[in-house]
Amino acid sequence: MRLLFIILALLTAITQYPLWWGKGGWLRVQELERKASSQQETNEALIARNNALQAEVQDLKSGKAAVEERARAELGMIKDGEIFVQILAPHEREPEIKTPQISKKKGN
C-alpha cells in the first residue's frame, strides 16, 4: 500500500510539472499577460499621438490659418505691410555672431 501511495504521488507530481513550470504553464501565462498589458498601454499612447498628428494634418490640409500660424511661429514669416517687432527679456542678450577666421598659408 505504501508503494502504491508513492507511485501515485510521483505520477501526480509528474503531471503537475508541465502545468506550473512547462512551456504553457501558469507562470508563463502570467508573464505573457504582464507583457500584453504593457504593450496595450504603449499602443494606446501611440494611438493618441497618431490621432493628434492626423488632426494636425487635416487642419493643415483644410485651412490657411494653421499654415499661416506655423509659418509665423516656426519660420518667423510676416505678411506684406506688417511690422515685426521682437522684444527681448532683460536677462536675454543678443546672440554673438562669430565669423570664422581664415588663415592664410604661404605657398612654397
From TrEMBL:
Coiled-coil regions, chain positions: 29-70
Keyword Chaperone: no
Annotated localization: Cell inner membrane
Protein's GO biological process: FtsZ-dependent cytokinesis
Periplasmic side: 22-108
Keywords, in A-Z order: Cell cycle, Cell division, Cell inner membrane, Cell membrane, Coiled coil, Membrane, Transmembrane, Transmembrane helix
Cytoplasmic side: 1-3
Main localization (coarse): membrane
Similarity annotation: Belongs to the FtsB family.
Gene Ontology cellular-component terms listed: cell division site; cell septum; plasma membrane
Subunit field text: Part of a complex composed of FtsB, FtsL and FtsQ.
Name of the protein: Cell division protein FtsB
Protein purpose: Essential cell division protein. May link together the upstream cell division proteins, which are predominantly cytoplasmic, with the downstream cell division proteins, which are predominantly periplasmic.
PANTHER family: CELL DIVISION PROTEIN FTSB
Keyword Protein transport: no
Pfam family, one: DivIC
Membrane topology note: Single-pass type II membrane protein
Top-level taxon: Bacteria
